[in-house]
Automatic annotation (TrEMBL):
<protein>
    <recommendedName>
        <fullName>Translation initiation factor eIF2B subunit alpha</fullName>
    </recommendedName>
</protein>
<dbReference type="Pfam" id="PF01008">
    <property type="entry name" value="IF-2B"/>
</dbReference>
<dbReference type="GO" id="GO:0003743">
    <property type="term" value="F:translation initiation factor activity"/>
</dbReference>
<keyword id="KW-0648">Protein biosynthesis</keyword>
<dbReference type="GO" id="GO:0005085">
    <property type="term" value="F:guanyl-nucleotide exchange factor activity"/>
</dbReference>
<keyword id="KW-0396">Initiation factor</keyword>
<dbReference type="InterPro" id="IPR051501">
    <property type="entry name" value="eIF2B_alpha/beta/delta"/>
</dbReference>
<dbReference type="GO" id="GO:0005851">
    <property type="term" value="C:eukaryotic translation initiation factor 2B complex"/>
</dbReference>
<dbReference type="InterPro" id="IPR037171">
    <property type="entry name" value="NagB/RpiA_transferase-like"/>
</dbReference>
<dbReference type="InterPro" id="IPR042528">
    <property type="entry name" value="elF-2B_alpha_N"/>
</dbReference>
<dbReference type="InterPro" id="IPR000649">
    <property type="entry name" value="IF-2B-related"/>
</dbReference>
<dbReference type="GO" id="GO:0005829">
    <property type="term" value="C:cytosol"/>
</dbReference>
<comment type="subunit">
    <text>Component of the translation initiation factor 2B (eIF2B) complex which is a heterodecamer of two sets of five different subunits: alpha, beta, gamma, delta and epsilon. Subunits alpha, beta and delta comprise a regulatory subcomplex and subunits epsilon and gamma comprise a catalytic subcomplex. Within the complex, the hexameric regulatory complex resides at the center, with the two heterodimeric catalytic subcomplexes bound on opposite sides.</text>
</comment>
<comment type="similarity">
    <text>Belongs to the eIF-2B alpha/beta/delta subunits family.</text>
</comment>
Length: 124
Protein backbone atom coordinates (compact mmCIF):
# COMPACT_ATOMS: atom_id res chain seq x y z
CA UNK A 1 0.00 0.00 0.00
CA UNK A 2 1.44 3.38 -1.06
CA UNK A 3 0.69 6.32 1.14
CA UNK A 4 0.05 9.77 -0.34
CA UNK A 5 3.13 11.33 1.27
CA UNK A 6 5.49 8.86 -0.44
CA UNK A 7 3.75 9.40 -3.77
CA UNK A 8 3.98 13.18 -3.40
CA UNK A 9 7.69 13.00 -2.53
CA UNK A 10 8.33 10.76 -5.54
CA UNK A 11 6.47 13.13 -7.86
CA UNK A 12 8.39 16.11 -6.45
CA UNK A 13 11.64 14.28 -7.17
CA UNK A 14 10.48 13.55 -10.71
CA UNK A 15 9.67 17.24 -11.21
CA UNK A 16 13.20 18.17 -10.12
CA UNK A 17 14.63 15.71 -12.62
CA UNK A 18 12.71 17.53 -15.35
CA UNK A 19 13.77 20.98 -14.17
CA UNK A 20 15.56 22.75 -17.06
CA UNK A 21 18.12 24.32 -14.71
CA UNK A 22 19.18 20.96 -13.31
CA UNK A 23 19.09 19.36 -16.77
CA UNK A 24 21.39 22.06 -18.16
CA UNK A 25 23.81 21.76 -15.23
CA UNK A 26 23.85 17.96 -15.46
CA UNK A 27 24.36 18.00 -19.23
CA UNK A 28 27.42 20.24 -18.90
CA UNK A 29 28.81 18.06 -16.10
CA UNK A 30 28.43 14.98 -18.29
CA UNK A 31 29.82 16.58 -21.47
CA UNK A 32 32.67 18.42 -19.73
CA UNK A 33 33.58 16.49 -16.58
CA UNK A 34 36.86 18.40 -16.17
CA UNK A 35 35.11 21.78 -15.94
CA UNK A 36 34.85 23.00 -12.35
CA UNK A 37 31.41 22.86 -10.77
CA UNK A 38 31.56 26.61 -10.04
CA UNK A 39 32.08 27.38 -13.75
CA UNK A 40 29.29 24.97 -14.65
CA UNK A 41 26.99 26.69 -12.15
CA UNK A 42 27.83 30.13 -13.59
CA UNK A 43 27.09 28.91 -17.10
CA UNK A 44 23.83 27.50 -15.80
CA UNK A 45 22.84 30.85 -14.27
CA UNK A 46 23.55 32.59 -17.58
CA UNK A 47 21.23 30.03 -19.18
CA UNK A 48 18.56 30.81 -16.56
CA UNK A 49 18.76 34.49 -17.55
CA UNK A 50 18.55 33.55 -21.25
CA UNK A 51 15.46 31.40 -20.68
CA UNK A 52 13.77 33.81 -18.29
CA UNK A 53 10.44 35.36 -19.16
CA UNK A 54 10.43 37.51 -16.02
CA UNK A 55 8.66 40.82 -16.40
CA UNK A 56 10.61 42.63 -13.68
CA UNK A 57 14.08 42.62 -12.20
CA UNK A 58 12.55 41.39 -8.95
CA UNK A 59 11.10 38.34 -10.71
CA UNK A 60 14.39 37.66 -12.47
CA UNK A 61 16.26 37.97 -9.18
CA UNK A 62 13.85 35.48 -7.62
CA UNK A 63 14.40 33.05 -10.52
CA UNK A 64 18.17 33.29 -10.09
CA UNK A 65 17.95 32.74 -6.33
CA UNK A 66 15.71 29.71 -6.91
CA UNK A 67 18.22 28.34 -9.41
CA UNK A 68 21.06 28.78 -6.90
CA UNK A 69 18.97 26.98 -4.29
CA UNK A 70 18.42 24.08 -6.70
CA UNK A 71 22.09 23.88 -7.64
CA UNK A 72 23.22 23.87 -4.02
CA UNK A 73 20.67 21.38 -2.73
CA UNK A 74 19.75 19.08 -5.61
CA UNK A 75 23.09 18.23 -7.19
CA UNK A 76 25.84 15.91 -6.02
CA UNK A 77 28.47 18.55 -6.74
CA UNK A 78 30.58 20.36 -4.18
CA UNK A 79 28.07 22.68 -2.55
CA UNK A 80 30.58 25.26 -1.18
CA UNK A 81 32.16 25.65 -4.61
CA UNK A 82 28.80 26.01 -6.35
CA UNK A 83 27.46 28.40 -3.72
CA UNK A 84 30.50 30.68 -3.69
CA UNK A 85 30.69 30.75 -7.50
CA UNK A 86 27.01 31.64 -7.72
CA UNK A 87 27.27 34.35 -5.06
CA UNK A 88 30.25 35.99 -6.76
CA UNK A 89 28.48 35.80 -10.11
CA UNK A 90 25.28 37.39 -8.77
CA UNK A 91 27.23 40.18 -7.08
CA UNK A 92 29.22 40.92 -10.23
CA UNK A 93 26.29 41.03 -12.65
CA UNK A 94 24.13 43.20 -10.40
CA UNK A 95 26.72 45.92 -9.72
CA UNK A 96 25.35 48.09 -12.54
CA UNK A 97 22.22 50.21 -12.16
CA UNK A 98 19.32 48.88 -14.17
CA UNK A 99 16.48 51.17 -13.12
CA UNK A 100 16.52 53.15 -16.40
CA UNK A 101 16.27 50.11 -18.69
CA UNK A 102 13.34 47.98 -19.83
CA UNK A 103 13.46 44.38 -18.59
CA UNK A 104 14.67 43.03 -21.96
CA UNK A 105 17.57 45.48 -21.91
CA UNK A 106 18.32 44.56 -18.30
CA UNK A 107 18.32 40.87 -19.18
CA UNK A 108 20.73 41.51 -22.06
CA UNK A 109 23.03 43.59 -19.84
CA UNK A 110 23.01 40.83 -17.21
CA UNK A 111 23.91 38.25 -19.85
CA UNK A 112 26.74 40.46 -21.12
CA UNK A 113 28.08 41.00 -17.59
CA UNK A 114 27.69 37.28 -16.93
CA UNK A 115 29.78 36.44 -19.99
CA UNK A 116 32.47 38.91 -18.87
CA UNK A 117 32.51 37.32 -15.41
CA UNK A 118 32.72 33.84 -16.92
CA UNK A 119 35.61 34.84 -19.20
CA UNK A 120 37.50 36.43 -16.31
CA UNK A 121 36.93 33.37 -14.16
CA UNK A 122 38.11 31.02 -16.89
CA UNK A 123 41.28 33.04 -17.48
CA UNK A 124 42.28 33.13 -13.81
Amino acid sequence: MTNDRTLTQTNAGDNLTNDPTLQYFTAIRQQEPDTSVAITAIRTLIDVINRSSAGTMSELSHELKSAVQLLTTQTDSSMPSVKSGCELFLRFITLAKFDTFAIDECRQKLIERGQVFLERTLSS
